[in-house]
UniProtKB/TrEMBL annotation, chain A:
An MF annotation (GO) of this entry: metal ion binding
Pathway recorded for this protein: Carbohydrate metabolism; tricarboxylic acid cycle
Protein species of origin: Vreelandella azerica
Cofactor(s) the record lists: heme
Protein name stated in the entry: Succinate dehydrogenase hydrophobic membrane anchor subunit
Statement: the UniProt record of this protein carries the keyword Electron transport: yes
Superkingdom per UniProt: Bacteria
Entry keyword Zinc: no
UniProt xrefs under InterPro entries: SQR/QFR_C/D, Succ_DH_anchor, SuccDH_FuR_B_TM-su
Annotated TM spans: 21-39, 59-79, 91-113
TrEMBL record, chain B:
Enzyme Commission number: 1.3.5.1
Location of the FAD-dependent oxidoreductase 2 FAD-binding domain: 10-407
Class in the EC hierarchy, top level: oxidoreductase
Annotated organism of origin: Vreelandella azerica
Residues the record lists as binding substrate: 245, 257, 356, 401
UniProt-recorded name of the protein: Succinate dehydrogenase flavoprotein subunit
A GO cellular-component term linked to this record: plasma membrane
Localization of this protein: Cell inner membrane
Active site (catalytic residues): 289 (proton acceptor)
Automatic annotation (TrEMBL), chain C:
Keyword Transport included in the entry's annotation: yes
Cofactor(s) the record lists: [3Fe-4S] cluster; [2Fe-2S] cluster; [4Fe-4S] cluster
CDD domains for this protein: fer2
Protein's name according to its UniProt entry: Succinate dehydrogenase iron-sulfur subunit
Organism: Vreelandella azerica
Amino acid sequence: MVTNITSFSRSGLSDWLMQRVSAVVMALYAVFLVAYLLFNPGLDYYAWSGLFAQTWMRIFSLLAFISLSAHAWVGLWTVTTDYIKPTNVRIGVQLFIILAIFAFLVWSIQILWGA
Amino acid sequence: MSNLRSLTYDAIIIGGGGSGLRAALELAKSGKKTAVLSKVFPTRSHTVSAQGGITCAIASSDPDDDWRWHMYDTVKGGDYIADQDAAEYMCSEGPKAVFELEHMGLPFSRFDNGRIYQRPFGGQSKNFGEGGQAARTCAAADRTGHALLHTLYQNNLKNNTTFLNEWYAVDLVKNSDGDVVGCIAMCIETGEVVQVKSKATVLATGGAGRIYASTTNALINTGDGIGMALRAGFPMQDMEMWQFHPTGIYGAGTLVTEGCRGEGGYLINKDGERFMERYAPNAKDLAGRDVVARSMVMEIIEGRGCGEKGDHVFLKLDHLGEDVLGKRLPGIVELSKTFAHVDPAKDPIPVVPTCHYMMGGIPTNVHGQAIMQDESGNDQIVNGLYACGEAACVSVHGANRLGGNSLLDLVVFGRAAGMFIESALNEGIEYLDASESDIEFAMKRMSRWNESEGGETVPALKAELQEIMQNSFGVFREEKNMQEGVQKLADLRSRIDNAYLPDKSNAFNTARVEALELDNLMEVAEATAIAALERKESRGAHSRYDFPDRDDVNWLKHSMYYPATKELKKRDVNFKPKTVDTFEPKVRTY
Amino acid sequence: MSNLQVSIYRYNPETDSAPYMQEFQVDTKGRDLMVLDVLHMMKEQDNGLAFRRSCREGVCGSDGMNMNGKNGLACITPLSDVIKGNKLTLRPLPGLPVIRDMVVDMGLFYKQYERIQPYLQNDEPAPAIERLQSPEDRDKLDGLYECILCACCSTSCPSFWWNPDKFVGPAGLLQSYRFLADSRDNATEQRLSELEDPFSVFRCRGIMNCVAVCPKGLNPTRAIGKIRDMLLADAT
């Protein structure tokens, strides 16, 4: 057993499962958005913001963004442990990634529920 | 020379093949300070190439099978110079040793009832030759050696055995009493030379098929243990007895298991005739290996060989169907595609008798203790020296080994040696330390190569040695030709003694290892040649045009080759099994 | 193609400050030799050339090397399978430290093998005969037990290159599954618990280089997938 403290769940299995589940959510979200765009050819701002004014769409979007965050973290954490061998640099980069993901997530919530 | 670093063990096992690993496992379990010293990573040892199986009366294919029948076959197969106490020990202890392997995880093939799969092999019978063909060879498809070696290595890991992998044993160290007290060894990776001190030194170095130009043996089978023991002055037993396996792939020399014939394959000549029906009407293609090999050579000599040169025969398997081939002989399908460019499901495999196994070796008792003789010819134990596996001559194989008996030999006598050494260590062993001059003596050969400044190089000399052995000491032998061979070898020895090692670097110097191996090949070749020349009869694998018959009056004996005088003496064969009646010599037919 | 041009990686730690490629001309007399035969002919030209070999029939796993960019066993690789434009380039297995010439230090590879406890574990008392196993259960070991530890797979695996100390690698995992799949082994839970971290198994990204190079035609990726399935079934 290889121990590690910076991985998402400290379990390869959970990370792996998380990545698969989040991928499915993102795929559904992407398919939905593409279909929506295709079925609404003359889409304008009001229709678009109307869509996002609905609670279910906000929740669906939030789920997709959380999935994206988790997916990105697991993936980028893996990349850092593959390629960045000096510990200090690796932790620095990982910290930066976490902050960035966190910021993007907060920002997306603000957009969804903001003014 | 006292600047050598020394490593100290209760027991050092030289060789990481089947017998060495089995002995090591026994000792590791006992908690004795043991190390296995191997010139290759253990799973690269030649045991890995064994295909067909391990012969043993475990009563799976036939619930009434009896180890005594197996013993009878073994003694008859060995043309009656197998020691009957040893054959008795091997065949009766065998089932225990095989079940242990299974418990360790060896992935044997299975019958529908869940028991270990057994297939027919050559020379096997029921009811002391009266009950027809037996199926007694336990198999893991056609990769039994691989499965066995990996299982043993794995269980040594489990039991924390110490391994000195890619170390090369150079020579034995003897003290002034003549006891063996360890060896000189070299770490191949760094070139460091150390003195290994040990109360028990086990030679489990395997065979030496590389003395022949054409052999099924791995490139590492250079008889290192035999060479070491001969240089230390110890005798070798039955060195004239070399098995030529009937089915080596023509041209490449790689082995095609006897299991092919066990599963129903058979040999054909250029007319498509199943010629073994003429030579062995009952057992046919499953006669003893020596019988089949000789029959093949007779076919070739009499002009019924296959191919443009008429110098081989065919092994026909296509009638078995792809299912049987895929399930029971998958490795053979692979090998023949790679080395003969033949798909055995469609076409027959070109095969020729190829040097396969050394029945002779270091004479030992059933406990693995090396034996020499005193002046009046009585057996005498060599203190500190043990041997098991192909390097040893217990002798269970006599003048011809039966298929599947080598793997059984490895595990039974590896285990026996381990158990005996454990109890000997428990009782306490004290030998004199080796003196400076004893160590210097053991270092002599290594130093010679390291100081060589010119002369012939190793590969060419090796090739020449292999040609001499191939031409003069093959399947059929004859006085004049052998005399020439012995002369050529004597000549070659002096050239090897003056040969040149150009590369004297330390890090992973394989050229140095090959030079040291050449010395060992030379020792084995000479012992073989002289023993073959002196044994004036035909018995088992040793067959002479000039003495075509077995001579039980003069030669129902082991031969003992003494290196110091290059003389051949005789040693009595054991005819006193403990629990069964003696198998008296009979005319050997199949 | 009688005169084959061979370019081979050379490094002797005692005399060379850095590795280099050396050119050899080998007269194959037009025969389709195995790469190992060519190496032996080169060693006759330069006795110092170091490489491992033993069985020369593809079962001992000594002579894994990189031939014209692809890992394989020199002894069962005919020239016609690898040469491009009459040129053969030989390098040691990638990703492991080189000791000398074609000889690599396999220490990390063996360590990962040892880590998966590559031996049968069964704490129930053994019967007086063998443990029974149905042919169907035995069939589950086919494609697993045949591994020869040549390291061709693990040293072609990028995940093993990056984390040879943490990722078990295809060879080790194939053996891990060999014991997980054995009906006679009852240490499944403990074996799985050793593997669920993010490195040991889950560094496999399904690149499948291991499958492409295995000289025995084995499929470590499939075995890894099965381990993942077992972990999943066990934890959910």
